[in-house]
């Protein structure tokens, strides 16, 4: 079986392309996952094929990345409008990183919204590989009625619902065809010495020789050929499928590529897992592509026994049919297989770094509908995060509530639906509160005596303490200047412990940071003093001093690294400024052509608005990663509102 992925932005007709390709010869068999990855098995040219139709939203980019891990080649569907080329930037980025041979298909050419050369030029801004036209459109007025193949130099007229008709190259197309063919041959000659010599000697190379060169170059992932058509009318589909059949590499090349990028020997690489989902009454289903011989139910894969092997289309057991190299199948009762991963018989090998999905930006607290579902929710989210690497699961600081980081609103909605439909856990979500702190603005001293008589031995401890602000980021510090044994040495650790305990909650209700405490003097009683007494005296004394120390609210500030196409960098300055952030600068992203890494400091309270504004400004393409940088003072009405909200349970911490 040969396998390819069809990917690209939403509304570019990916699913229609798959449907038309799969229906060229015979009846296709289709299956799908709850995450929007659809699989279509079909036959073409007496070969078995599997098309992986990756979901289009940018929030589902991880599923497209993982599908590429199991694909011999891919088709990137793009719009015929030059101004929409930027929407393909995330897909070109992962294609370049993955090394997957790719054919770029400009779809919906029946409704052109710009010159084809402008489309290619705009897309080239995001591709390291040369985008090389293999066809040019044939026009009648403003309409595109067919295409001309630049290798065979044959022209085809589109016919609705029928195979295209061979025609003579129209006179008004001949000059453009000659120019485009010359450019094609010049680019191909960069990778073939024989062709270069033919062109230098002014000899006309044969079509068969050119097709052979094109096939080799695609298999070696040297260029990205560009084909055109209109899938909704079936136009260009046969040529596209023939290009895949003759030029896409076999599964052995994929095995070599994965072994080269991973830490596994090619001879030991048995399979690759690339997608997983949960089904009611079935459990975890893992989609696997066989790369070697010997896979069957019960065989050792990934260090444990492979569960039931199922047919993709009907879910029935395939225990009597052994998956051949290249076959795609569903494995159940194989929970030991992580996704994605490279699999040998005895081990699971981590996938290449390029499969890591974008950093999730949307944070939500999930609240179960009933108390009995709290533990179940925690266990279930852990399972789902294993099947979906675009999802991160943590616990909210202070409350321990389940905090999830999703790729966006659609991703979050799909997660909640899976929890409800498959695991019968009803949840609501809320926005997590930023983690605030407090500190003091000026030093103070306190003298505190703890005395308590309880019938037997009493409690006595007397401490004199100095409390002062530390430098930002220094945290808590403790010192002592005791002389003459006023406080015995064995009680001093208890004084420090009491001071630390007082820092857990200050006058404003938040944890206290960047404060130093010094034990200046004190008294003890030979009978009634104890570690507990000194710990209590220190805690109460520090609390008293904090309340007298001009407490200041501190808000978290995060360093944010934005990953965006360069055309959007200018708009970020205004977005960051509007959210009281500080722009640090930006650089070209050395790992992705046409992308920038834009850096800024942003208050934690603005991250939710930042994610929303970024999605809007970049058409859902841009994303950011964040790391805590520091706490800074917050004053005025905003600080007062946060302190008031702290008095209401569950609103701030």
UniProtKB/TrEMBL annotation:
Residues 552-642 form the Elongation factor EFG domain. The keyword Protein biosynthesis applies. The keyword Zinc does not apply. Residues 433-550 form the Translation elongation factor EFG/EF2 domain. Keywords: Elongation factor, GTP-binding, Nucleotide-binding, Plasmid, Protein biosynthesis. It comes from the Bacteria. Catalyzes the GTP-dependent ribosomal translocation step during translation elongation. During this step, the ribosome changes from the pre-translocational (PRE) to the post-translocational (POST) state as the newly formed A-site-bound peptidyl-tRNA and P-site-bound deacylated tRNA move to the P and E sites, respectively. Catalyzes the coordinated movement of the two tRNA molecules, the mRNA and conformational changes in the ribosome. This is Elongation factor G. It comes from Rhizobium acidisoli.
């Amino acid at each position: 079986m040969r396998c390819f992925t069809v990917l690209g932005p939403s509304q570019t007709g990916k699913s229609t392309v798959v449907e038309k390709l799969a229906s060229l010869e015979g009846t296709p068999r289709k299956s799908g996952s709850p995450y929007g990855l659809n699989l279509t098995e079909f036959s073409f040219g007496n070969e078995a094929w599997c098309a992986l139709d990756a979901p289009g939203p940018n929030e589902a980019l991880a599923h497209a990345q993982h599908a590429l891990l199991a694909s011999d080649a891919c088709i990137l569907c793009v719009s015929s409008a030059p101004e929409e080329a930027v929407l393909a930037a995330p897909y070109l980025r992962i294609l370049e990183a993955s090394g997957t041979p790719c054919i770029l298909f400009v779809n919906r050419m029946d409704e052109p919204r710009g010159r084809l050369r402008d489309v290619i030029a705009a897309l080239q801004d995001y591709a390291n590989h040369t985008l090389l036209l293999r066809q040019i459109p044939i026009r009648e007025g403003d309409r595109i009625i067919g295409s001309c193949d630049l290798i065979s130099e044959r022209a085809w007229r589109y016919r609705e619902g029928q195979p295209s008709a061979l025609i003579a190259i129209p006179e008004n197309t001949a000059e453009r065809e000659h120019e485009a063919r010359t450019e094609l041959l010049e680019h191909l000659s960069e990778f073939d010495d024989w062709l270069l010599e033919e062109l230098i000697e002014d000899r006309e190379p044969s079509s068969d020789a050119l097709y052979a060169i094109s096939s080799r170059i695609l298999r070696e992932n040297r260029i990205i050929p560009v084909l055109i058509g209109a899938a909704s009318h079936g136009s260009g589909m046969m040529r596209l499928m023939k290009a895949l059949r003759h030029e896409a590499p076999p599964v052995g090349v994929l095995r070599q590529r994965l072994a080269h990028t991973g830490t596994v020997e090619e001879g030991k690489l048995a399979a690759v897992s690339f997608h997983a989902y949960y089904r009611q009454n079935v459990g975890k289903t893992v989609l696997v592509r066989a790369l070697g011989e010997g896979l069957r139910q019960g065989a050792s894969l990934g260090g444990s026994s492979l569960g039931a092997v199922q047919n993709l289309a009907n879910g029935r057991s395939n225990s009597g049919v052994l998956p051949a190299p290249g076959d795609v199948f569903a494995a159940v009762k194989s929970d030991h297989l992580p996704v994605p991963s490279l699999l040998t018989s005895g081990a699971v090998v981590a996938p290449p770094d390029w499969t890591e999905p974008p950093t999730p930006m949307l944070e939500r607290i999930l609240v179960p509908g009933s108390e009995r579902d709290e533990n179940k929710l925690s266990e279930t989210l852990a399972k789902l995060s294993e099947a979906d690497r675009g999802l991160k699961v943590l616990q909210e600081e202070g409350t321990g509530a389940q905090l999830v980081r999703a790729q966006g609103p659609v991703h979050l909605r799909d997660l909640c639906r899976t929890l409800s439909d498959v695991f019968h856990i009803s949840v609501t979500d809320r926005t997590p509160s930023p983690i605030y702190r407090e500190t003091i603005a000026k030093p103070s001293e306190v003298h505190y005596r703890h005395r308590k008589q309880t019938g037997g031995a009493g409690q006595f401890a007397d401490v004199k303490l100095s409390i002062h602000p530390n430098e930002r980021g220094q945290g808590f510090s403790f010192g002592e200047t005791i002389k003459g044994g006023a406080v015995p040495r064995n009680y001093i650790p208890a004084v420090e412990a009491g001071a630390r305990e007082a820092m857990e909650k200050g006058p404003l209700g938040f944890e206290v940071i960047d404060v130093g405490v010094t034990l200046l003097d004190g008294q003890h009683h030979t009978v009634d003093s104890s570690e507990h007494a000194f710990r209590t005296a220190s805690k109460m004394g520090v609390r008293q001093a904090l309340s007298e120390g001009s407490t200041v609210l501190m808000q978290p500030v995060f360093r944010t690294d934005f990953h965006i196409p360069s055309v959007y960098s200018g708009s970020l300055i205004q977005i960051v400024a509007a959210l009281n952030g500080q722009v640090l600068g930006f650089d070209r992203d050395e790992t992705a052509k046409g992308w920038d890494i834009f850096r800024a400091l942003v208050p934690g309270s603005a991250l939710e608005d930042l994610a929303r504004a970024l999605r809007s400004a970049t058409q859902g393409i841009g994303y950011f990663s964040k790391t805590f940088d520091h706490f800074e003072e917050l004053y005025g009405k905003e600080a007062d509102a946060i302190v008031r909200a702290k008095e209401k349970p569950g609103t701030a911490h």
